[in-house]
Automatic annotation (TrEMBL):
Region Disordered: start-end pairs: 122-176
Origin superkingdom: Bacteria
Comp. bias (Basic and acidic residues): 129-139
Biased composition (Basic residues): 140-170
Gene3D superfamilies: 3.40.50.12580
Protein name, per record: Spore coat polysaccharide biosynthesis protein
Organism from which the protein derives: Halobacillus halophilus (strain ATCC 35676 / DSM 2266 / JCM 20832 / KCTC 3685 / LMG 17431 / NBRC 102448 / NCIMB 2269) (Sporosarcina halophila)
């Protein structure tokens, strides 16, 4: 580990030990917190994480990330009960922060209302005061009146004879033709309730409990903080605000989980991450009830801070890379299963939008190569500008900039020869492209699975695990070199065979072929529930 990683894990373990007595119903709250968000905005602390002297000043020092996993193993084992086999129970699937990304076809075909239950977070907003309600109502009335006027104006433009009548369908019943009224929009919406019936909010399982418990726990946390007068992190206003919010969230989630497992017959739990208090608490309470848990890998392991510690019984990973990496962190191979991801199963299916339609929608030149550039906000912005400044194939290719939002990226303004990906779906963009250039993202892996040539902009980040190092000549830290390599690939077939072989070797290790991911997942569920 480098000094940043040693400092990060050391500060984390100090936090666990300092607040370990902050317990609710036997669960130590700091072990259920999302620690990264508690310190992320503290620039003073983040700067110290790069300092060797800071490491020496810490009470508890971590020299290897295995020590962190061992500490969490003790916590997990203290709550783990003998596994209960429930072949008839429902599989609870909880999506946290939209990380699950199961395709709708998978949800409909494999996880029905008879065998599963999708749990979502409540969207209920905090209560508004009278003044806010009054203003909101005025605004709604104003918008409603505006829409009414627009509809009236529109109806005046169309004379009555021109208005299209709803076409009536003809249905044959016992040899008699019967006219059937077209279904209204409300009827169509209601027809989907059968599918939606196995989607419930977590707070629908929240029993009545003493809410003052949360306040008392926050007061206890304050007392602990006051025993560390020189710890500037614990006394930071934003740290306390976020910590107290997480305490409230964790206590409520413990109660919700207890309500869930009392009311529902649950055979297994699936989450996309155990990094956050919402899902980590669910997994730990499930362990207390003897219910097996699965954590689906939601993206490549670009940094170890997002994937350690491992909490669930089994982590469904992409490939052998993750198995070897987790084992190097002291994790038992029995707690790992190569699943891939169900959404990747769709990469080799026909696109929802044809290449010609993508070209037309983005106003691309039909006879040019399509270069898809994957960026994330303003991360590496300077490097991407350099990459675009150095490309000699501006006139020979359509360069499409794709950010994680649908808004045009600033690069499309600073470099007008590029195109915004707009609203086009990611997989349609990948399939319509000839080359994909990306930062160290999951999209690069997806493009390779789809059979596309991929080149990656490398920038070392804290906790980087070397995921894409095996790509060799396709992986560059210099934007100018990356631009040159992509240019050579487009203009000459000299290195095509070599690059294809590098990609093939990488995928064999990172994402092996064979059975579909959804088949592997269902097999794992059966193994854990029988």
């Amino acid at each position: 580990m480098n000094i940043y990683e040693q400092n990060y894990w050391s500060v984390y373990v100090n936090f666990l030990e300092d607040f370990q007595d902050l317990k609710y119903k036997g669960y130590s709250i700091p072990y259920l917190c999302h620690y990264a968000s508690l310190i992320r905005s503290n620039k003073r602390l983040v700067a110290k994480l790069h300092n060797k002297k800071f490491f020496q000043s810490l009470k508890v020092k971590v020299y290897d990330s295995k020590e962190v996993q061992e500490k969490f193993n003790d916590f997990i084992n203290a709550h783990k009960k003998e596994r209960k086999v429930k072949t008839t129970g429902k599989v609870v699937i909880h999506d946290v922060y939209n990380l699950l990304r199961f395709p709708i076809q998978i949800k409909r075909n494999l996880f029905t209302k008879d065998n599963s239950l999708f749990l979502i977070e409540s969207t209920k907003s905090k209560p508004k005061n009278k003044q806010e309600n009054k203003q909101e109502n005025k605004q709604k009335i104003k918008q409603r009146n505006k829409k009414s006027k627009q509809r009236y104006k529109q109806s005046k433009k169309i004379s009555r004879p021109q208005k299209r009548r709803k076409k009536q369908k003809i249905k044959v019943s016992n040899g008699i033709k019967v006219k059937v009224k077209a279904r209204s929009r409300s009827t169509l919406v209601n027809s989907n309730t059968n599918h939606a019936s196995h989607h419930k909010t977590f707070n629908s399982y929240l029993p009545s409990f003493d809410q003052s418990t949360i306040k008392r726990m926050q007061i206890k946390a304050t007392r602990i903080i006051n025993t560390f007068p020189r710890n500037h992190l614990y006394h930071d206003k934003l740290f306390k605000k976020r910590f107290f919010a997480q305490i409230s969230k964790i206590i409520s989630r413990i109660e919700e989980c207890n309500g869930l497992f009392e009311q529902e017959d649950v055979s297994a739990v699936i989450v996309p991450s155990t990094h956050y208090p919402e899902s980590r608490t669910l997994v730990i309470v499930a362990a207390e009830k003897g219910i097996p848990t699965i954590c689906m890998q939601h993206g490549i392991i670009s940094s170890e801070f997002g994937y350690l510690p491992k909490i669930a019984d089994v982590d469904g990973v992409y490939g052998q890379f993750e198995v070897d990496w987790f084992k190097s962190k002291g994790i038992d191979e029995n707690g790992l299963s190569i699943i891939g991801h169900p959404r990747f199963d769709f990469l080799n299916r026909p696109p929802s939008m044809k290449k010609t339609d993508v070209i037309k929608a983005l106003s691309l030149h039909p006879n040019k190569k399509n270069i898809l550039v994957i960026v994330r906000g303003n991360n590496q912005l300077g490097m991407w500008k350099t990459f675009l400044d150095h490309i000699p194939f501006k006139k020979e290719a359509n360069i499409i900039i794709r950010d994680f939002t649908t808004k045009p990226h600033s690069l499309t303004k600073s470099h007008p020869f590029t195109f915004s990906s707009r609203h086009i779906r990611l997989y349609d963009l990948i399939k319509a492209s000839d080359v994909v250039v990306s930062y160290c993202s999951t999209v690069a892996l997806e493009a390779m699975i789809a059979g596309k040539p991929v080149f990656i902009m490398n920038e070392q980040i804290p906790g980087y695990v070397g995921y894409y190092d095996g790509l060799k000549d396709l992986f560059h830290s210099s934007p100018a070199t990356l631009s040159k390599t992509v240019n050579e690939y487009i203009k000459s077939k000299k290195n095509h065979k070599k690059y294809s072989e590098i990609k093939r070797e990488f995928l064999a290790y990172a994402y092996p072929g064979g059975k579909l991911s959804n088949v592997r997942l269902m097999k794992l569920i059966r193994r854990l529930t029988s």
